[in-house]
Design a protein that fits this description.
This protein is an alpha/beta fold. The protein is about 60% helix and about 5% strand. The longest helix is centred in the C-terminal third of the chain and has 48 residues. The structure holds zinc ion. The site of zinc ion has 8 residues, from helix 3.
């Protein structure tokens, strides 16, 4: 029988634990054996939120996570009254949001089983938000299960993580990601292999790349940038190109979603209603929503630049591989000739410094540096010989 856990690629080590917990959650009305708070950690793309959502599905499904029943399907699409998935659009989760969430989940589960809250970015909780959440987690005898996701355990406040059971996801192997793309997403084997390799085990990114022609051509442009840094002017141009591409990618993928959200909101207020109060209420809510959407695009641009920087780091990593004669483990084997040529003109040890510079730029961005400025500084550094 198929199960919601089938899609968790390369995570066999935690699937048994999750299945055991689901089984324990069914034994009688006593919930002693069931841990109420869990933390899923793992590198980006390892699928920590997918794992948490699968667990949520299994907890509320009458067949322990069949993936096919109404419960499973509505839980996955946000339509189940007892399952709430919190995705953060802004850079942080504020205490007001947690308070609002707590009033929403204060009711007993509607189906009599469990209420499950999946928090995708628990690392973005502000300290006061985390403290508010802590109180809820500590409350005894509730029927709410908290599934928090974060890159590492260090990203979660110690007070919270000490009350959670911890599950560490692994980066799936390139081979495992390739197989999923072929079987689940009907991607051709050659494309699947390419996407899995350059995405370094990041399943979401691999799928995005394998199924989007424009994303692939953008990536191609970005990967050429380090090869064209002949002058300072070229470095500034390269920074601009990188930021432009990231911005347009973020806008393309958010535009459709933004429009749908505004439409849905207007419908909720009764589109075309003529009452004056109605109109101002709707206008205010739309304004509020558009503000949230802008902050989401800002974050998506940053994420997109970060992805591009990781790609650039793999190019310098390949330069090191070529210089040490280990070409068989190249990531960007589609650029083999260009990288070999590039590597031959590169002083030894210089590639390491370039990777350090890329990682430094990522840190700067994570600390809210202006994207263009951070990229300009990086490209100037990369242009230096
Ligand atoms: Zn089910």
């Amino acid at each position: 029988m198929s199960s919601v856990f089938d899609d968790l690629v390369g995570q066999e080590h935690i699937i048994d634990i999750l299945k055991g917990a689901v089984a324990a959650s069914r034994t009688g009305s006593d919930s002693q054996e069931m841990t109420h708070a869990w933390v899923f950690t793992g590198p980006p793309g390892s699928g920590r939120s997918s794992a948490a959502v699968a667990f949520a599905q299994a907890l509320i499904c009458p067949n322990q996570g069949c993936g096919a029943c109404n419960e499973c399907q509505s839980a996955a699409t946000g339509g189940h009254p007892d399952v709430e998935v919190i995705c953060t659009e802004g850079l942080s989760i504020k205490v007001e949001e947690i308070r609002e969430l707590l009033t929403r989940v204060a009711w007993a589960p509607s189906m009599g089983g469990w209420r499950v809250v999946v928090m995708e970015d628990a690392d973005r909780l502000t300290e006061s938000a985390a403290n508010a959440l802590l109180k809820a987690i500590e409350e005894p005898g509730t029927r709410t299960i908290w599934l928090l996701c974060a890159p590492t355990l260090h990203d979660v406040l110690p007070t919270i993580r000490s009350r959670c059971r911890h599950l560490q996801l692994r980066t799936p192997s390139i081979e495992a990601v390739t197989q999923v793309l072929i079987k689940r997403d009907n991607v051709s084997p050659i494309m699947a292999d390419f996407a899995a390799r350059v995405s370094q085990g990041h399943i979401g990114r691999a799928k995005y790349l394998a199924t989007n022609e424009s994303v692939r051509s953008n990536r191609k442009v970005i990967m050429q940038l380090p090869l064209q840094l002949g002058s300072l002017a070229a470095a500034f141009q390269a920074a601009q190109t990188l930021v432009d591409i990231a911005t347009s990618e973020a806008h393309t993928s958010s535009k459709e979603r933004d429009e749908k959200e505004v439409e849905k909101l207007q419908e909720a207020y009764g589109k075309g209603a003529t009452g004056r109060g109605m109109a101002t209420g709707a206008a205010k809510a739309v304004k509020e929503l558009e503000k949230e959407q802008r902050s989401r695009v800002t974050r998506m641009v940053r994420d997109s630049i970060d992805g591009a920087l990781l790609d650039l780091a793999t190019l310098y990593r390949d330069v090191m591989m070529v210089q040490s004669g280990a070409t068989e483990s190249m990531i960007n084997s589609d650029m083999r000739a260009e990288i070999e040529n590039f590597a031959s003109s590169f002083p030894p040890h210089s590639a390491v410094q370039k990777i350090t510079a890329v990682m430094e730029a990522r840190n700067q961005l994570a600390m809210n540096a202006a994207p263009l400025v951070a990229c300009e500084a990086l490209m100037c550094e990369l242009a230096r010989r």
